[in-house]
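A common beginner's mistake is to predict each chain separately and then try to dock the pieces by hand. The better habit, illustrated here, is to supply every component at once so that their relative placement is modeled jointly.
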Amino acid sequence: MAAKTLTIDGKQITAEEGETILQAATEAGIKIPTLCHLEGVYDIGACRLCLVEVTGTPKLLPACTLKVAEGMEVSTDTERLRKYRRMTLELLFAERNHVCAVCVANGHCELQTLAYSQGLDHVRYEYTFPKWSVDNTHRLFGMDHNRCILCTRCVRSCWHIEGAGTKNVSGRGGKSRIITDLNQPWGDSESCTECGKCVMSCPTGALFKKGSTVGESVRDRDKLEFIVNAREKKQWNA
Amino acid sequence: MILNDLNQVKEKEQAAQKKIVLRCCMAAGCMSSDSKGVKEQLEKAVADAGLQSEVEVRGVGCMKLCCEGPLVAVDPKNELYVRVTAENAPSIIAALKGGKANVEQTDPDAAFFKKQFSIVLANSGVVDPERIESYIAADGYLALHEVLNEMTPKDVVETMVKSGLRGRGGAGFPTGLKWGTVAKSPGAKKYVICNADEGDPGAFMDRSVLESDPHSVLEGMAIAAYAVGADQGYLYVRAEYPLAIARLQLAIKQAKQMGLLGAGIFESPFNFNVDIRIGAGAFVCGEETALMMSVEGKRGTPRPRPPFPAESGLFGCPTLLNNVETFANVPAIYRKGAEWFAAIGTEKSKGTKVFALAGKIKNTGLIEVPMGTPLRTIVEEMGGGAPDGGKIKAVQTGGPSGGCIPSQHLDTPVDYESLGKLGSIMGSGGMIVMDEGTKMVDVARFFMEFCMDESCGKCIPCRAGTVQMHNLLDKILKRKATARDLAKLEELCDMVRNTSLCGLGQTAPNPTMSTLRFFRNEYEELLQPDTFGAGATHPQTVTK
Ligand SMILES: Cc1cc2nc3c(=O)[nH]c(=O)nc-3n(C[C@H](O)[C@H](O)[C@H](O)COP(=O)(O)O)c2cc1C
Ligand code: SF4
Ligand code: SF4
Ligand code: SF4
Ligand code: FES
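With all components supplied together, the output reads:
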């Protein structure tokens, strides 16, 4: 495979053809904030947190789907990008009901961690306080729509790692929501194999294991990556 | 079918032409005020008077002056009856023998008609959209014949490049360049898609073209398919257009029967099938990548580009996607030549553009004008200005992705660049005229609400940003906002425009930004004094 030389944040790096900017940056030790990206499933460029500036391109492009190219000059941490990232996070907090103090993910939530890292200390937009429900009908797991950020990581894991096709998105815009099967209670789902991959994928406290304490609900995300590597690259070491 | 057969159909159709033709509009606008009943009664009146051998009553497509429908035109007398009812039929038939019908007429030589230049709408209101013979009599499918017999796919692309045609779906991307890219993309299977989703509020150009002249779109698609090497086409039509869908189905069937679509077209090795896909009426499904997801049977959400559809589109194959009006331009370009087409319009915007003229204006309906026509000519001369002596305040183009052009800029020529400079876009052709009574903040909120409701919800800036921008506009309108809210709104406009995934979010702030640019005072008049004082950065109190 051909190697490509490019610069990210002024640092000269080489990357394999076909790699994304996100992969190349990660290998070079440059951290780009992400939210909808999940190792093991394909990328969709939805959360817009990983947007980067590319010299010569007027548009901001998502690092998770942008492929490396020879001579590319990428900036991942400009004033403008930092501002947009903070605004994106603010919009998320104002969109649903995130009350960290009483959340199962408090302390190991990707949204919360990102907000800290981006220096977000308050939200300037008016909270919308939407009315969302909690689906507690499943034997093992629960779903709290109040904390969902619609990253669709659960949907992609359920379809493309487990192959169950239980999770889906219904509705449009701010009214979009994650559903099970054809919008049935999770507990009634016949396609769900109870594998728990969706719960492992969730960056927030929207999906959780029942009966575990907050301290216990740390996500076992490496498992997903392990399965995919085993399957696609025939690597069985974790 | 070979050229000879095509000419025979044409000659037969012309020989059967009767002395007098009553053209009766059978497009959705007039049909909603019973033009079907009008046509039936006209036919009956012709029979009652024993005039069947001399008079034809022909159902045709849109005759453009939709606000005065149902319309009936009389050839060759050059008369145009307006607001015809079924009861008027005998009077109209009686008048054929001399005398005057007791039905209102309008001047078919008025500026509204005379200033039009028809390429896309040349057959609209003339041919019978339900009979392929009628289209063939108007030189239909001649261009396809010539392309298949005289030109290589490469020539076809070159001609398109020379014509200078640009996509009529909104962005104005050069059509020849797009065709060339798809033609060059490696792949055994390729697709051609016609985008007939037309979701802009107030726009009905594409619907009219499909209802009035479906074969021109099919012929355009077939020529494009030959150029890029595709053998399968899809027409993506929204479900709200049942008449257009019915006419397309009929047109496809008739073209197949004649060997003008399907396998071995004009007895050449070229095959091309077209199927219709019906959209459920989501605005975002007009966006090309979302449209292709929808055709594949998936949830219609956009995906990041690159890869562009020209390389990896429908089912991962190279795909050419053009708008209805873009395809409808194609047959004429090959019949009359790229030079002919390139001579119409301006330096960078060639040909004509169809607009759906609506809002506070006397004559509403469809107009087709050469690119570069000043807005003033359109709204004042053709449209007849604001009704009841009102004053025009602004013209909105581009729907929820466009902007408002204030009356002091009415001399702007209508072309891609000029409209872009004023912060609006050509768009797909919706043109809404606003008079002095229109509140611009209201307009901005209306379009923001539209984008908020139509956002697919995939990316955060558009999904959550439009909600916040809408709430801020609402707050301003309710006189509860301060200067800091306005600043927040402007900051969000910039952010949503630059960070959204697809065109919907990227252009959702346009109506707000453009009204802020030209009518900022209307916003400021509604603002309340800031209790924190200017420049204060206190965190906002959370209110329920
Ligand atoms: C939200 C959104 C809605 C769109 N709706 C339409 C539409 O209804 N019809 C259309 O032809 N193009 C629409 N477009 C533009 C298409 O994505 C595409 O650019 C166009 O169909 C290409 O055809 P053209 O090159 O012939 O213009 C839309 C784009 C966006 C972002
Ligand atoms: S537990 Fe497994 S099968 Fe069930 S919804 Fe989650 S990912 Fe799908
Ligand atoms: S439930 Fe979790 S993983 Fe699924 S979309 Fe919501 S936040 Fe993402
Ligand atoms: S910009 Fe809006 S419509 Fe487009 S992908 Fe994002 S949420 Fe969907
Ligand atoms: S991680 Fe790239 S857009 Fe979400």
